[in-house]
Structures are given as structure tokens and as C-alpha cells.
Amino acid sequence: MARPLRAKLDLDALRHNYRLACECAPESRALAVLKANAYGHGALACARALEPLAPAFAVACIEEALELREGGIDKPIVLLEGFFEESELEIIAREGFWTTLHSDWQIEAVERSRLPGPINAWLKFDSGMHRLGFGTEDFVRHWRRLALSPKVCGVHLVTHFATADGVDMAYANHQLAEIEALRYRLEAEGYEVPCCLANSPATLALARARGQWHRPGLMLYGADPLERANPFSARLRPVMTLESEVIAVRSVEPGEPVGYGGRFIASRQTRIGVVACGYGDGYDRHAVDGTPVLVDGRRTAIAGKVSMDMLTVDLTDLPTADIGAKVTLWGRAEDGSQLSVDEVARHCDTISYTLLTGILPRVPRIVSVG
Ligand SMILES: Cc1ncc(COP(=O)(O)O)c(C=O)c1O
User: Fold this and answer.
1) Would the CB of 107 count as within 6 Å of ligand 1?
2) If I label 283, which of 95, 256, 276, 326 is the partner at 20 to 30 A Cα–Cα?
3) Cβ atoms of 255 and 222 closer than 8 Å
4) Is there an atom of ligand 1 within 6 Å of 217 CB?
5) Which of 28, 199, 230, 239 to mutate to test the pocket of ligand 1 (most atoms within 8 A of CB)?
6) Where are the beta strands (DSSP E) in 3-150?
7) A Gene Ontology biological process annotation (predicted)?
């Protein structure tokens, strides 16, 4: 492997973060969310690492669930978007997948299905996200139907928070009130109502959002979804280290531009290091001048627009850094210094979810040991 760019994966950190998610909500069981190729980390490698700990997994769709089954993962797998075509129901029943039901047509399909056995249904409540799911009256009507249906062997209430990552918790508390009212109403009719409520932000910071299950995604990978400080977030460990090397060094005079569009203009005699990593690898082209990187563990910054296969960094204050110097785009450098993907994301006017899921197949994933 000659090109030095790689995404190193620390699966011990993944297990540590999973245990932390369990510690945040000890009375609840944690579904490990592995959708979008485990947020870019490799779904099968992550599932195998978590299988001894996690009672179940969650993915977006049946293709992602089948990849895990074919890789030998035999734990229950929740389909967070449910099925897209009625024909998937047979596979869902055969493979023991648990499916979200968010629309009338899906419930009708379950009711008219002829399956070898009943399926586990996760009925989606729209508590305020207004994306997928049923409002209160439709939810109650469907719940009663499914509870009686021989096609179903268990019904869960599943919902999603829109703003649990923010500073103002008023809307998350409003969603919680909607959930509690619905639950109270169903329990008053004699139903048991197992719930799955919390994503990572709610797992970390919304203690009242703990149902029988919670669904951490991003935090498993060591990124912090919260806009505010939180003692649990401070204990997250990065799973992915995006690492490359300086492949060329040049000196530019004051006033000279660097890279496409000449965005960076040297204000002094400047040593520019060229790094093998670009937007063709998934590194965000919106990274501004000043976006942090570590070179041999020491902080410096991007200078010039990100190109397809390369980016340029300012090495002026790192005179010993030369061709072959290790560059950490995010994650943990060999000397233990760290650069959080959340900090890089802020310089790209985005969130760490997009940076992690955006790393392209071109970048080899290497499981790091120790
Ligand atoms: C329905 C659902 N549940 C859980 C998650 C996991 O969220 P997070 O990565 O914030 O933990 C997501 C993520 O997009 C989701 O869409």
C-alpha cells in the first residue's frame, strides 16, 4: 500500500464507547446503530467487535441488515426505516429482523402477509420530529390492531428526538411530554409499552428519555453530538484516525498564493507541506484556511483549498517536519495527541456525522491493534 492515506480503526475505543452508552442509561439496553457502513467505519468489523456486548443492532435498511447476517452476525437487527417494498417481509420474517412501521401501507402489508412466523414490530411515533411516524390518534389505533394481530409477536414504541443535541431543551422536553402522555394512555388500556427513545444526544444528556432500549450511533464512534459540554462526552474515545503523510514541501514568498483559486496568500515566508488526502477521499472541500491538522502530533492548519487528492498545510512553525511526516487529519496521533473530528467539522461548517460517513471506499480501513 504505497499511498499513505488510511483510516485506522481502534475497535477497543468502539467497545469503550459502547460501554459508556450503557453506563449513561444503565436501566436500558443499547442497540448499536451501524447504519451507513457504521458511520463510515465498516459495519461488519464494528458488529463483530460489539457482538459480545450488544444484544441487538440497528441499520437503515434490509441491504445493510443482510450484509451483517451474511457476515455471521446472528443477533436481532432493527430496520430503522422499515421496509420499502412488501416483498421484503418474507426476508424480515426469515432472518428475524425487527422492522419499524411508520406508514399505513406497511401495516396493511403486514396484516395481509402470509409469513412463516410473526414479526417483531417497532411502531414509529411522531412525537415532534415530523419525519417518519404516526401522530397520537393513528398510533393508538395501529397499536391496538397490531397488539391483536397474529402476524406480530411484539410491538415497541419507537420515536426520535429533533433537538436533543442543542442547548435549549424546551422542544426535547415537549417531545418527552408527548411520549409520556401516549404511554400513559396505552398503559391505562392494559398494554405493556416497551419503548426505544434515545439517540446519542439523548443518551448522553436527557436522562428522562431512557426506555427499555436506546439507540446510540455517533457516540459509539467517539464523536460528540452535543453542542454543550457534558461529562460523558468528555470520556468518548475516537475510533477512526484519518492519517496520511507529507509528500512534498516547498517554500513560498510573502504575497504568493497557494492552490486552486489562490485562496491562501502567504503573509510571510511560508513552508507549505503537501498531504496525500483530498475531497476524492471524502475529506471536506469546505475546510477553511486554519482548519486544524496534526503533523507529527503537533497542531498546524490547512493553508489553501482542498484538492481532489491533496491538501496543503502550513509547516512554517514546524521546521523539523519534512517529507514523510505523519499527518493526523482527525483522531489520535502516535504520540497520543488528539484532534477531534467535531473540531474539524466546525471548520467545514458541518457536523462530524457527515465527515465520518463521507470517507470514501478509496481510503483503506485498517484495524489498529493495541
Ligand atoms: C431513527 C434513528 N435512530 C437513531 C439514530 C442514531 O443517532 P445518533 O447517531 O445521533 O446516535 C439515527 C441517526 O440518524 C436515526 O435516524
Assistant:
1) no
2) 256
3) no
4) yes
5) 199
6) 6-9, 29-33, 56-59, 77-79, 97-101, 119-124
7) D-alanine biosynthetic process
The SS3 of residue 272 is strand
Decide if pLDDT at 316 tops 80. Answer: yes
Please write the tens of the pLDDT for every residue from 243-282.
999 999 999 999 999 999 999 999 999 999 999 999 999 9
First to last CA, the chain: 21
**pLDDT for the residue 265:** 98
CA distance 164 to 80: 19
If we measure between CA atoms, which residue out of 334, 338, 329 comes closest to residue 238? 338
Average per-residue pLDDT for the chain: 97
pLDDT of 188 above 90 = yes
Asked if 316 and 270 count as a contact pair (C-beta separation under 8 A), the reply is yes
Q: Does pLDDT of 370 surpass 80? A: no
| Sequence spans of domains, the chain | 11-223, 240-367
The residue nearest atom 6 of ligand 1, judged by CA position, is 217
Q: Is 308 annotated as a binding residue?
A: yes
> Is 344 near ligand 1, meaning CB less than 6 Å away?
no
102 lines ligand 1 (CB under 6 A): no
Residue 306 DSSP label: -
User: How far away, in angstroms, is 124 Cα from ligand 1 center?
Assistant: 14
- CATH number, domain 240-367, options 3.40.50.720, 1.10.357.10, 3.50.50.60, 2.40.37.10: 2.40.37.10
Note the pLDDT of residue 73. Answer: 98
Catalytic machinery residues:
35, 260
To the question of domain 11-223 being in CATH 3.20.20.10, the answer is: yes
**Assigned C-alpha cell, 143:** 397499536
